[in-house]
Specification:
Radius of gyration of chain B: 13 Å
Number of strands of chain A: 11
Order of helices and strands of chain A: EEEEEEEEEEE
Helix content of chain B: under 10%
Largest interface: A-B, 22 and 26 residues
Distance between the termini of chain A: 41 Å
Number of helices of chain B: 0
Structural class of chain A: mainly beta
Oligomer: heterodimer
Shape of chain A: globular
Largest sheet of chain B: 7 strands, mixed
Radius of gyration of chain A: 14 Å
Number of strands of chain B: 11
Strand content of chain A: over 45%
Shape of chain B: globular
Chain lengths: 114, 112
């Protein structure tokens, strides 16, 4: 079955630096990949979707890459701010497309220190 | 505001109580979900409804009973819960299964 790994449980960086989070997957080739942000005690919020034919996608200070050869997505936050501190989740569609549910990774907790 | 509302936001109940959590989505979505998230743990998918039909039950104990009367509303009925059931319960909806999910704010449940 497909497997998602977010390699770091936690990432601590200094304000102003670029945060880079990793999402790896195995055993299939998803048509797209999503990233969500979750603040403590709240539900995840959708940030970005990148499709398999897109190498890179940007939204303000966020940049997502999708390397289907490495089976990896990188999520970058440039000029990070303390307000970016949260847990970031990647999510993939199930093997077989619409016949299953979105699968979430365990998340990486990002802490940006002033 | 994601278009998914949950009530109550906080709930404290004894092990012998019966209570219900409510979720409502105003997005016209076809799929609705219940997740459990214990402290510092990842999301655990509990139930999935697609076009009002339950399509998934991830080995959830029978003390949790879902109900989906229509495509906009989802309930989670609780009875004889255990203290280890204390967690954040999140509702989500999506246009179809495997699509982007929109989450409600969650219900923080404490079982005494």
């Amino acid at each position: 079955s497909q497997k998602i790994e977010q390699n770091s449980e936690a990432l601590n960086i200094q304000e102003g630096k670029t945060a880079t989070l990793t999402c790896n997957y195995t055993n299939y080739s998803p048509a797209y990949l999503q990233w969500y942000r979750q603040d403590p005690g709240r539900g995840p919020v959708f940030l970005l979707l990148i499709r398999e034919n897109e190498k890179e996608k940007r939204k303000e200070r966020l940049k997502v890459t999708f390397d289907t050869t490495l089976k990896q997505s990188l999520f970058h936050i440039t000029a990070s701010q303390p307000a970016d501190s949260a847990t970031y989740l990647c999510a993939l569609p199930p093997y077989g497309g619409s016949q299953g549910n979105l699968i979430f990774g365990k998340g990486t907790k990002l802490s940006v220190k002033p | 505001e994601t278009g998914v509302t949950q009530t109550p936001r906080h709930l404290v109940m004894g092990m012998t109580n019966k209570k219900s959590l409510k979720c409502e989505q105003h997005l016209g979505h076809n799929a609705m979900y219940w997740y459990k998230q214990s402290a510092k743990k990842p999301l655990e998918l509990m139930f999935v409804y697609n076009f009002k039909e339950q399509t998934e039950n991830n080995s959830v104990p029978s003390r949790f009973s879902p109900e989906c009367p229509n495509s906009s509303h989802l309930f989670l009925h609780l009875h004889t819960l255990q203290p280890e059931d204390s967690a954040l319960y999140l509702c989500a909806s999506s246009q179809d299964r495997a699509d982007t999910q929109y989450f409600g704010p969650g219900t923080r449940l404490t079982v005494l």
